[in-house]
Every structure is written in C-alpha cells, then in structure tokens.
Design a protein that fits this description.
Order of helices and strands of chain A: HHEHHHHHHHHH
Oligomer: heterodimer
Distance between the termini of chain A: 41 Å
Number of strands of chain A: 1
Structural class of chain B: mainly alpha
Shape of chain A: globular
Helix content of chain B: over 70%
Structural class of chain A: mainly alpha
Radius of gyration of chain B: 26 Å
Strand content of chain B: under 5%
Number of helices of chain A: 11
Distance between the termini of chain B: 53 Å
Largest interface: A-B, 77 and 82 residues
C-alpha cells in the first residue's frame, strides 16, 4: 500500500502546485491573489458543465483530452518521489516516461488540429516544434545522471543522487548543470514563462493555452488536470536530481520531497514575476542551451 | 523450405499467366490472386521455421562459373522472409482493387508480372547462399520495380523518377558486385559458407569490404546521401508498390548489411562509429526533410530514410558492442535494429496504403489541397492515425518497443566503459530522442492537415476505400498494436537471429544480454495494459457523466470572426514552419512570394518548394558534369551507317592484333 501512497499524493496535490505558483505571483505583484483552492474549484466547476462541440470536429477531438490525461496519470506511477522508489520502476523507465508524455502531446496536438482553426493549429505547431527540441536535452541530462549513479531506472538513479547529497566529491557542478537543464525543460514542457505565458489572452502569442481554446467542460477539466499532473511529474524528475533524502524513512522523505516541490513552485512563481516571456525565435536557442548544459554535465561524469 | 520454393514457383507462374490477361480484369485476378496465394502458402512454414529456429538448405550444382544453386533458410533469412510474405500478400490484395479503375486502359498483366517477379526475387535474395545466385536475384529485384514505377509512364515526372531509380539501383549494384569479387578472390566458388571461412584472412583487411557493402547495400536501403532515389520513386509508383518497396524492398539492403557482417567475420570499432554516424545523419536529416514536404508520399519516402537511420543506429550500437566485447550491447543493438525492420514494414506499409486510399478517391496527396478526410473516410483515417502514432515511436505501439531496445542497449552499455564507447552511445540516445520528437511533429502535421479540420478545396465524391483496400490496412493496424503488446515474446523470436549473428563470439552471452530486456519490455506491456484500463475507465466515466447533460454543437470558435473558410486553416507548410525555419540552410526551400500592393490590393500569392541539398549540391553537379564529359564524344555518333561499320571493322582488327601480339 505504501507504494501507492506517493502517486495518490501526486494525484491529489498536483493542482495545489498551481495555487502556490499563483499565490507567489500575486504576492510579488502586490495583490492578494485567488484562494489557495482555486484550481480545485475550477476543475469542479468544469466537471459540472455540459459540452459544446464544434461541427468540424471528429472523435479525435474528444479522444485528445482522455488519452492525454490517461498517459499523464501513467507517468505519475513511473516517476519516483525523491529517494522513494516509484511503484512502477524498471531499467529504462524514463524512456517510457518521456514517450508517454509524447503520446499525450500527440493527441492533444491532433485534437487542436481537429478544430480546423488557425489559432489552435498555430499553438499546436509551436508545441510540436519546441517540445521536439526539448527532448534531446532531457535525455542527455538523464543519461548523465544514469552514468553518474550507475543505475538505469529513475528510482535507482534518484535514490543514489538523494542519498549521496550534494557534498559527495565533485557532485556540486554536475548537479547544478543537470538541474539548470532540467529546470529549462520543466518550464518549457509546462508552458511557463520564459517560454510561454499561461496568463496571456492574446492568441497569437500563446502556445499551450491556444491549443485548447475550443475545449470546454469536462474536456477542459481533463486537460487542465493533465497539465497539473505534468507539472508534478517533471518537477519530480528535477527534484529527484537535487533534493537530498534519507532513502530509509519514508515519511522524512515525504516531507522533504513535498517541501522541495513547494519550493520549486515558489521558484517558478518568482521566475514568472521577475522576467518577461522570450520572443519565439529565441526559444530554440534557450532549448539548445539546455542541451548544452546537459552535455557539459555529461562530460564531467564521463571521467 | 519446400513451401517457400513452391511459393516462388507459384509467383513466377502466376506472373506469367497474368501476362496473358493483358489489360483485362483477368490479369489482376491471376496476378494478384497468385501472389496472395503464394504468400499464404509460404508464410506459415516460414513462421514455423523462425519459431523453431531451424535451418534448412538445398545445394545443387550449376554450370555457371563460381555459381551453384545453394539456398538456405536460417533464422536471419526467415526473419526477413516473414515481412516479405506478409506485406506482399496484403499489397496484392490492396492493389487488386486499387488498380481496378485502370483495367482496360493500362497493361495490368505486365504490372502484375513485374510485381510477382519483385516478390519472388526478394525471396531469392533472402535465401540465396551463393554470390552469383545472390547477384542475379539482386539484379532482378532492382529491375522489376522500374517497370512498376513506370506504371503511369505518360507523366513526365514518372519517367524522370524511373531514370533516377535506375541509375541509383545500378550504381549500388556495382559496389555489391565488386564486394563479392573481392571477397571471393582465390576462393573455389562464391558459396557463402566458403566465403565466410575465407573472409577472415583477407590480406587487405576487411575494412575496404565493409565500406563497399555500406555503399552498395546502403544505396538500396537509402542511407543519406544515397537516398535521393527514394523521394522520387515512391511518389511515382502506384501506392501498393510504394508500400512494398518502402516496407520490405529497401530492407533487403539492411539484410545485405547483416549478411555481409556475418561474411566478414569480426569487426573494428570504426565500423560502429561509421554506422552510428550514418544512422544519425540519415535519421535526423531524413525527418527534417520529411517535415518540409507538401506531398504525403514524398513525406513518407523521407520518413523511410529516417527509419533506416534508426535501424543503422541500432546496427552501429551492435557493432560497437561486438568490437568492445560487450555482448549485451551487441544483442540489444542488433535486436533493436532487426525488430525495427519488422515494425517499419508494418507501419510504413500501412501508411503508404493509407496514402493510396486518399490518392484513389481525392486524386491528389498534396496535403494543402486536402483536409477533413476523417469524416468521409473513417476507417482509412483511423488506420492512418495508428500508423502515425506507431512511426512516431509512441507506446503502446510497436515502434516504441524496437526503439526502446536500442535506447536500453545504448544506455546500459554507456554505464561503464571508456569515453570512446560512451560518446557514440550518448549521441545515439540524444539522436533517437530528437528523431522521436521531430517525427511526432511531422506526423501530427500529416495526419492533422489531411484528416482533421475541414476540406481546403471543395472536393465532391470523396468516399471510403473499398473492402479489399480497407482489410489490409485494418490487419496492419491491428498488427502494429499486437506487436507492441507482445514485444517480450518477440524477443524469443529475435533470440536465435541475434545468436546466429553472434556465432563464434559469445552466442550465449548475446542471448543472455537480449533476454535482459525481457523484464523492462514486460513492464512496458503491463503499463500499456494499465493505460488501456485507464482509458476505458475515463471514457466510461465521461459518457456516464455527459449522459444527462446538454451536449450541443456549434461552429469552431474563431475569436469573433464568423465567416471562416477551409482555406484559412493552417497548412502543412505553416505547421512545419517553426522547425523548417531553423533548418532553412539544409532544406533549401525556395519561396515564391507575391505581396499585396497598392491601396486596393488585387491579389497575392505564396508558394514554397522544398529542395534536397544532396540532390541539388552533390548529385546534379556530378551527373551533369558526367553528361558534359560524354557529350564531348557526340561526334562519334552521327548516323552514317558506313562509318559505324568501319568502327566495327577497326575494333575487330584491333582485338585481333592485340590477341596476336
């Protein structure tokens, strides 16, 4: 039962990360901010609604949110929680994780294309392009972790990383490089500033939000909940590399991990409050930069 | 073995019979029916031999110098024979209906004759164990598609594609000929078992032979820069032929690579580096070129280049494992490459057949003139979607399983070992990740632009493909899913094949290395089942909740604009623009822009044409140089018969004089 505790935690608390981000942004902007349970209230409201479908769409439009959510929920069971192993761990599991996120992306993009709207297709096209460029950086970073720890499953990798901590000989530069690369990927894949602005209402500048313009009711709830879970999953990958843990006592690890995730959410809020979105043409450079950082880490662990 | 040779005989017989049918439907009935029957006869026994990992051979003397009729089916041959028989049967079925509108107008008998000849020659290539026999089968396999490509020979583009194909196929064949001649120098005959014993102690080293094999077989497989014939030939050929060529014929190049590796014995690390380099170039450039295409069949052809790149990456990883003495790396690299060969036959066959169904009813596969086909063609659309997800390497379909094997090998082999081994392996991992991401972009574009949204050009009479065309697509789509779920079982089929490749240097260690992947693959299948359960649960929950609520329909939200037309949708080029813009230098896209002018603009236009750097910067200059050089000799050819007779007389005299010297 213990092994299912952490995924359950993720399924319940992932929308709360959004609350923390929004509250941080509100405080930084001198506002009071929405109630902390607002993301949950939004989801409940959407789940109570009926549905309106565009006459252009086919079953693909309805399948997009469902497959997207199902694939992301699977990821929650694959990603470990700091030093604690995931219920579903095997050598090479991060390949499955990345490709399950790819599956979700494939169908969300297809659903956007199904509306026949240029706005949505524009978001879809950008999402496809930028996540394709983020993919190698993620794999290089995780390959560096694998080489460093001598493990092939994320649970093994993050266990070693957490228990070793930052002070083991020569760890610090590697961990810093990897976490910088993973942070950029985290922000890109979750459509946060500086890559995408979740609050913008100008369709021409959006990436993720514009893809789901035509979704409403339950479909939109599935998509938003899926995005919250994805935030958690990629955050957990980043936390696994930097967060120290005991590896023995599960509740100490739980506290450490949850505070790490909250810290990450605060950091995301601070980044969003302190900088503007980059121009779209700069994004490939940012993502190549992430790949470069990961490659540097790789050279350091190769010795 | 008996069944396979019976199949070959039946293919040849029915091919010749269909010639009698001429332009009538009877030709299709005889030719396609014969091909289908022959493949059906041979397929079960081939599968049985693959599962039993048994080897059967027939060795008969032949009067040709160095030749003998030596055929053998070992696990490697059987592994390539299964997709040949499977896809040929389905393509014959599909082609029978696809070509029906041409009956009475086109020589269908000749088409089916060459179709059956192509299938038979591919089978012979896979089972031939004598150099001369192999080269003859190879040559027939290279020539037969030419006549299939030239089916619509009244079109200028088709004739040009035929030329490109012919030149590429024969340049490749020359290298293979030299490969066998050099390998067999001093050997009593070109039987493969003799060559394999002979290849180990060649005085000049086997490196040169490896390069010859890479160029010769790589031209067939489509390694960049030898790929230029693929994007010309595949669009020109009828779709079931494209499916067969892309699904299995180019794989015979990969088969040739594997077979020559067994003939050459041991390998050097640099072979592995070369293959990883080829794989990265073909894989990444292939998918980038595919992204920029407007024509679906050209896009799919470039995707074959990409998938051949993935297969080459797996082979490179395998060779590195052999050279560095790491049996697990060897087994997973070669196992992943072989598995991908099979998977690519399934989903690329499926995608080309899907493209054929679109072409059949819409008359074009220009993506920017299509759209919204999911509604009139739900079966074709759904099958295409399965193929698109599979080729993007998405779980739970088969493309993911084979790429996962290569990932696992490269990651596992890179845990220890020197930088010399680690660097190419990490490049493989990063390359595969990039290829996967770009392939997803490319296939969401192809599927989204063609099947989703609304029609871009008003097309009346778009209808679903006929029964004989739908059934092969449905079978292939189902096989994509089944193979993905049954991937752990596939390892047991791959085991003997990989073991045979590793003969002499740790066969058992290779098997152990391959079986190490069984646990992870089993977990993936388990995860896929979990995903399925979750999907069913979500769909049911969704249906139950929506049951009592108002579900209405409306136009797509146009941000306030109320008169949208199909032509305002994103096109294939606009969808790919963020990525094609990045790779502008390699893609050589030429753009034709007419901007709106004046206060009352009358009209504007934009068109873009993707190019191919290798074709335009390498092959066209070289071949036009060759043509210029030889046109210098035009004065020899002037049409005066008397002088021609003089040439002959002079030549004969010269030969006589040389002989008498």
């Amino acid at each position: 039962m213990r092994s299912l505790f952490f995924p359950l935690l993720a399924l319940i608390f992932s929308p709360f990360l959004l609350s923390i981000i929004n509250r941080t942004k509100a405080i930084a902007g001198g506002r009071k901010g929405a109630p902390l349970l607002q993301p949950y209230l939004d989801l409940m409201k959407l789940l109570r609604k009926g549905a309106v479908y565009s006459r252009t769409t086919t079953w693909v439009f309805k399948a997009g949110p469902v497959i997207g959510l199902a694939a992301t929920v699977m990821c929650v069971f694959i990603v470990p929680f700091g030093a604690q192993a995931a219920p579903f761990a095997f050598p090479g599991d991060f390949v499955l994780l990345a490709y399950l996120l790819g599956l979700a992306r494939f169908f969300v993009i297809s659903a956007a294309m199904d509306t026949g709207s240029s706005f949505e297709a524009m978001g879809a096209s950008r999402e496809a392009a930028f996540s394709a460029l983020a993919e190698p950086a993620l794999f290089i970073a995780l390959a560096a972790v694998a080489r460093k720890t001598g493990e092939l499953s994320m649970s093994g990798m993050f266990h070693v990383m957490s228990v070793q901590g930052l002070d083991a000989g020569g760890n610090l530069p590697v961990v810093l490089l990897i976490s910088a690369a993973l942070l950029i990927i985290f922000l890109t894949e979750n459509a946060r500033i500086p890559v995408d602005d979740p609050n913008t209402h100008l369709e021409l500048t959006m990436i993720h939000e514009v893809m789901v313009l035509d979704h409403g009711g339950m479909d939109l709830a599935f998509i938003q909940y899926g995005s919250a879970l994805k935030l958690w999953v990629l955050g957990a990958v980043l936390m696994g590399c930097v967060m120290p843990g005991s590896g023995a006592s599960w509740w100490i690890d739980a506290v450490l991990f949850m505070s790490g995730m909250s810290g990450l959410a605060v950091l995301t809020g601070v980044i969003e409050s302190s900088m503007a979105r980059l121009r779209l043409v700069r994004l490939p450079q940012l993502l190549t930069g992430a790949g470069g950082l990961a490659a540097l880490a790789l050279i350091l662990v190769m010795r | 073995m008996t069944f396979i040779l019976t199949g070959v005989a039946l293919l040849l017989l029915s091919g010749m019979l269909s010639l009698v049918g001429g332009r009538s439907r009877a030709a299709t009935f005889l030719g396609a029916g014969g091909a289908f029957l022959a493949c059906l006869i041979a397929l079960p026994s081939t599968i049985r031999m693959l599962f039993n990992s048994s080897t059967e051979s027939i060795h008969l003397p032949w009067s040709v110098p160095y030749g003998s009729f030596f055929v053998e089916v070992d696990p490697l041959s059987a592994f390539f024979l299964v997709p040949i028989f499977l896809l040929s049967a389905l393509c014959a079925l599909y082609g029978a209906q696809y070509l029906d509108p041409y009956s009475g107008r086109k020589p269908l008998g000749a088409h089916w004759f060459f179709f059956n000849l192509l299938v038979a020659s591919m089978v012979m290539v896979a089972i031939a164990r004598n150099g001369v026999l192999f080269l003859i089968a190879w040559e027939v396999m290279s020539l037969a598609p030419l006549f299939l490509i030239l089916f619509e020979d009244e079109k200028e583009k088709v004739r040009a594609a035929g030329w490109t194909y012919l030149v590429a196929a024969h340049l490749g064949a020359v290298f293979i000929l030299v490969f066998f001649v050099m390998l067999g120098r001093g050997a009593p005959s070109l039987d493969f078992d003799l060559l394999a014993a002979h290849g180990k102690d060649l005085p000049w080293g086997s490196g040169a032979l490896f390069l010859l094999a890479v160029i010769g077989f790589g031209a067939k497989a489509g390694f960049i820069p030898l790929h230029v014939w693929l994007p010309e030939a595949h669009p020109a050929a009828p779709s079931h032929v494209s499916a067969l060529m892309s699904g299995v014929m180019i794989k015979m190049g990969i088969y040739g690579m594997f077979r020559s590796l067994t003939l050459l014995g041991g390998s050097d690390p640099w072979w592995g580096y070369a293959m990883v380099g080829i794989g990265l170039t073909s894989g990444i450039l292939g998918v980038i070129y595919a992204l920029s295409q407007h024509d679906l069949k050209r896009l799919l052809a470039y995707h074959s280049v990409e998938n051949i790149g993935i297969i080459a990456l797996g082979m490179g990883v395998g060779i590195l494992g052999e050279a560095f003495g790491n049996p697990a790396l060897f087994a997973l690299g070669f196992g992943g490459a072989l598995f991908h060969v099979f998977n690519h036959a399934l989903f690329k066959g499926l995608l080309f057949l899907g493209a054929g169904s679109v072409l059949h009813t819409a008359g074009t596969v220009e993506m920017d003139r299509l759209g919204g086909l999911m509604k009139p063609m739900p079966v074709t659309g759904t099958c295409f979607l399965v193929g698109a997800a599979a080729i993007s390497g998405l779980p739970p379909l088969n493309g993911f399983a084979s790429e996962f094997l290569i990932y696992l090998g490269a990651l596992g082999g890179g845990l220890q070992g020197s930088a010399l081994l680690f660097t190419p392996l990490v490049m493989t991992v990063a390359g595969l990740a990039l290829i996967g991401g770009l392939a997803t972009a490319c296939f969401t574009k192809a599927f989204g632009v063609i099947f989703l949204g609304s029609p871009r050009v008003e097309g009346a009479g778009i209808h679903e493909a006929g029964l004989l065309m739908r059934v092969p697509m449905l079978i292939l789509a189902a096989l994509c899913a089944i193979t993905g779920l049954a991937a752990p079982l596939m390892l047991h089929v791959l085991g003997p094949v990989v073991g045979a490749l590793g003969k002499g240097h740790g066969e058992n260690a290779a098997l152990t290395g391959l079986m190490w992947a069984e646990g992870p693959l089993f977990m993936i299948s388990l995860g896929s089942i979990g995903l399925g359960v979750l999907l069913i649960a979500l769909v049911t929950a969704r249906r139950m909740i929506l049951q009592n609520r108002e579900v209405s329909d409306a136009p797509t939200w146009g941000c306030g604009y109320v008169m949208p037309t199909g032509r305002m949708q994103y096109t294939s080029s606009s969808f790919a623009q963020p990525l094609t813009g990045l790779f502008r230098q390699i893609l050589r896209i030429s753009e034709d822009v007419r901007m709106p002018k004046d206060i009352f603009p009358s009209g504007a236009s934009f068109s873009s044409h993707p190019g191919d750097a290798f074709r335009e910067l390498v092959f066209e200059p070289v071949f036009s140089g060759v043509a210029r050089f030889f046109s210098g000799f035009r004065w020899l050819q002037h049409g005066r018969v008397q002088l021609y007779v003089l040439y002959i007389a002079v030549t004969l005299m010269a030969i006589l004089a040389w002989k008498l010297r």
